[in-house]
UniProtKB/TrEMBL annotation, chain A:
Lineage: Bacteria, Bacillati, Actinomycetota, Actinomycetes, Geodermatophilales
Protein name in UniProt: Tryptophan synthase beta chain
Domain Tryptophan synthase beta chain-like PALP: 73-397
Cofactor(s) demanded: pyridoxal 5'-phosphate
Domain of life, per lineage: Bacteria
Record keywords: Amino-acid biosynthesis, Aromatic amino acid biosynthesis, Lyase, Pyridoxal phosphate, Tryptophan biosynthesis
Metabolic or biological pathway: Amino-acid biosynthesis; L-tryptophan biosynthesis; L-tryptophan from chorismate: step 5/5
Family: Belongs to the TrpB family.
TrEMBL record, chain B:
Cited InterPro entries: Aldolase_TIM, RibuloseP-bd_barrel, Trp_synthase_alpha_AS, Trp_synthase_suA
Broad EC category: lyase
Enzyme active site: E50, D61
Reactions the enzyme catalyzes: (1S,2R)-1-C-(indol-3-yl)glycerol 3-phosphate + L-serine = D-glyceraldehyde 3-phosphate + L-tryptophan + H2O
Role description: The alpha subunit is responsible for the aldol cleavage of indoleglycerol phosphate to indole and glyceraldehyde 3-phosphate.
Alphabetized GO MF terms: tryptophan synthase activity
Protein name as annotated: Tryptophan synthase alpha chain
Gene: trpA
PROSITE patterns: TRP_SYNTHASE_ALPHA (PS00167)
Length: 452, 263
């Protein structure tokens, strides 16, 4: 009798040729690297080495593919959205449906990889930072699945904005620690997680949620997320017989964007467009557009574009979307920007919410507010590129977590009638004023044939 | 190269004691009071003052230091204030060394920082989130300006990293005594002593100072038993946070200064 070890599929994402960057020490041109206390270098080296060994280990590849398929539900489908596309200047719009993944966003792709890595290096506890709560939920999920202890740091401001996800993490057995230092958002949650890691590094692994942070996180998280673009590229070739003209994704730290971009980087004719959170508008200073409105510096362990003042202090970011409300961006995006391979554009809160409502009304899909930034980018880019353009949009997550924010913005719930003095609506809307209700005459794009 | 830190720590050693190194951030509770507190630390017996540059994301500091630094960041304290503090500490007779996360220095301009720091009488800088691997610009600028540069070593540093880091240091090396962030603790730990021993084996001529966790004269005496310098931060800041002002800082310095002489 012969038994053969399972063989990983030859087209596994992690086995594909990687971009030439970063270099061996984690530099993407002038960006990236490691700006961390020496006390963390041994742990980062351990992670780098273990990861490089793991990514070519057939047993790991088989297990990773199995989890993608049986647990997450990969491959995620492509959905064409013609009624939405009517508002995009005649372009065709295809969505990559990361919102249909288990736990509701692309974050699970990365977390399963890092959780397997945690087990491989023999650590029993994971920590994570989270903004919108999606990475925290994904980490808590993987920890439950693999029997790891889990602590999630979340800015106190975000625990309020994303209360549903706090409850989800606790249901999954994770400890959620609200962070009350600094601006009480994602950047401070990352600081606290790094503090925990420096202190408990012997027992604890830091499961980082995006393509930022010190080497090896930007490269490793990219590798775990590139499955999005690898699948999408093959799916488009199969159903359209061609590549898209542009690939769009929202950019917070940048993991879903790098995830869908990577497969297309060598396809010079495919435009790669990252949509940053423009908040109230980049010109107002209240935004989270690190590349459009920031400049290079060092934050959270790497050199990249960031929002900073004349003294090099990180400036607080602003966005209706907790997942994009971060003053930095992954170093690979800075590099792709400088070399002109990808373009980055801001999308304001109101543009994002308009696109959010439009997808709900025209296609019956409630997107995450993060992903709605990419949808808003498609509306603008479609109009620029004209009819026949084929746009691929990464729908990075679903909007269940955002229902409360959206109700407040649009004044939908009974108790959040959009009167001027409604404090709750004002607070949740975050722009100072709640947005106009759906059906407001200003929002003609939403109204076209889609009356409430 | 003539190193202010090496000279001062060497002088303490010649007296048969360890040097006392006091950390205080510029701008808490305000710039003038923070400078008064630094001068008080010197009057109480500090040999070296680590002048902290306020930073919005001090990932290596515990809640005590972060609380004070947040106030300074919100008040817009910057490098000009830091340079005034450097001059004041030099005038008070101690060696001023700047302690800064990397981004404020990069933002100010690495060469400009080195030139201005040297002109103000500063010895050099301690850079907690800059490892020598990433420090090309700073190595060049500090050489050109004749400044000391202090990098950190940790119990988890491999022998190879230890050797590389010690070779890049000038003035002293900062041994992080326990794994973790700054903040007072009840015991400093044996790991510190083991780390000091390892650094001495590799670089016998480089002073090694121990930080992270010392809060009183007794602990200072314990660390002075095996290190060339004792670094105290959170305990000084605590004096200011608790409203004891520069007088409280002076009193703490006196206790610690007696400690480093006790061994
Ligand atoms: C659905 C969704 N999309 C995007 C993001 C932003 O992260 P990144 O830019 O790393 O994809 C988040 C972060 O929480 C998210 O939940």
């Amino acid at each position: 009798m012969t038994t053969t070890a399972p063989v990983p599929p030859s087209d596994a994402s992690l086995s594909r040729p990687r971009p030439e960057w970063p270099d061996a020490t984690g530099h993407f041109g002038p960006y990236g690297g490691r700006f961390v206390p020496e006390a963390l270098i041994a742990a980062l080296d351990e992670l780098s080495e273990a990861y490089e060994a793991m990514r070519v280990d057939p047993a790991f590849l088989v297990e990773f593919e199995r989890l993608h398929r049986d647990y997450t539900g990969r491959p995620s489908p492509i959905t064409e959205v013609p009624r939405f596309a009517e508002h995009c200047g005649g372009a065709r719009v295809l969505l990559k449906r990361e919102d249909l993944n288990h736990t509701g966003s692309h974050k699970i792709n990365n977390v399963l990889g890092q959780a397997l890595l945690t087990k491989r290096i023999g650590k029993k506890r994971v920590i994570a930072e989270t903004g919108a709560g999606q990475h925290g939920v994904a980490t808590a999920t993987a920890a439950a699945l693999m029997g790891l202890e889990c602590t999630v740091y979340m800015g106190e401001e975000d625990t309020r904005r994303q209360a549903l996800n706090v409850a989800r993490m606790r249901l999954l057995g994770a400890e959620v620690i609200p962070v009350t230092t600094g601006s009480r958002t994602l950047k401070d949650a990352i600081n606290e997680a790094f503090r925990d890691w420096v202190t408990n590094v012997e027992t604890t692994n830091y499961v980082f949620g995006t393509v930022a942070g010190p080497h090896p996180f930007p490269a490793m998280v990219r590798d775990f997320q590139r499955v999005i673009g690898d699948e999408a590229r093959a799916q488009l070739l199969a159903r359209e017989g061609r590549l898209p003209d542009a690939v769009l994704a929202c950019v917070g730290g940048g993991s879903n964007a790098i995830g869908i971009f990577t497969a297309f980087v060598p396809d010079a004719d495919v435009r790669l467009v990252g949509l940053e959170a423009g908040g109230d508008g980049v010109e107002t200073g209240r935004h989270a557009s690190s590349i459009t409105g920031g400049d290079p510096g060092v934050l959270h362990g790497a050199r990249s574009y960031l929002l900073q003042d004349a003294h090099g202090q990180t400036v607080e970011s602003h966005s209706i979307s907790a997942g994009l409300d971060y003053p930095g961006v992954g170093p690979e995006h800075s590099y792709l920007h400088d070399m002109g391979r990808a373009e980055y554009r801001p999308v304001t809160d109101s543009q994002a919410m308009e696109a959010f409502a439009l997808l709900c009304r025209t296609e019956g899909i409630i997107p995450a507010i993060e992903s709605a930034h990419a949808l808003a980018g498609a509306i603008t880019l479609g109009k620029e590129m004209g009819p026949d353009a084929l746009l691929l949009v990464n729908l990075s997550g679903r909007g269940d977590k955002d229902v409360e924010t959206a109700s407040a913005w649009f004044g939908l719930a009974e108790h959040t009638a959009p009167t001027d003095g409604d404090e709750r609506a004002v607070e949740e809307g975050r722009g100072g004023e709640p947005g106009p209700p759906l059906g407001d005459a200003d929002h003609t794009t939403v109204q076209d044939g889609d009356a409430l | 190269m003539n190193s202010q830190l090496d000279t001062r720590i060497g002088a303490a050693k010649a007296e048969g004691r360890a040097a006392l190194i006091a950390y205080l951030p510029v701008g808490y509770p305000d710039v003038p009071t923070s400078i008064e507190a630094m001068v008080a630390a010197v009057e109480g017996g500090a040999d070296v003052v680590e002048i902290g540059v306020p930073y919005s994301d001090p990932g290596m500091d515990g809640p005590t230091i972060q609380e004070a630094v947040d106030v300074a960041v919100r008040a817009g304290v910057g490098m000009a204030d830091v340079l005034s503090a450097v001059s004041a500490v030099a005038a008070a007779g101690a060696v001023p060394v700047v302690m800064s996360y990397w981004n404020p220095i990069e933002r100010y301009g690495v060469e400009r920082f080195a030139t201005d720091l040297a002109a103000a009488g500063g010895a050099g800088a301690i850079t907690p989130d800059l490892i020598p691997d990433e420090a090309g610009a700073w190595l060049a600028a500090s050489d050109a300006a004749g400044l000391d540069r202090v990098f950190l070593v940790a119990p988890s540093s491999t022998d190879a990293r230890l050797a590389m880091t010690l070779a890049a240091c000038r003035g002293f090396v900062y041994a992080a005594s326990t794994m973790g962030v700054t903040g007072t603790r009840s015991t400093v730990g044996d790991t510190a002593q083991a780390l000091v021993t390892r650094t001495r084996e590799v670089a016998p001529d480089l002073a090694v100072c121990v930080g992270l966790g010392v809060s009183d004269g007794d602990q200072a005496a314990e660390v002075a038993g095996f290190a060339d310098g004792v670094i105290v931060g959170s305990a000084y800041v605590r004096q200011l946070l608790d409203g004891h002002g520069p007088a409280g800082v002076r009193a703490l310095s006196e206790d610690l200064a007696a400690g480093v002489r006790r061994r």
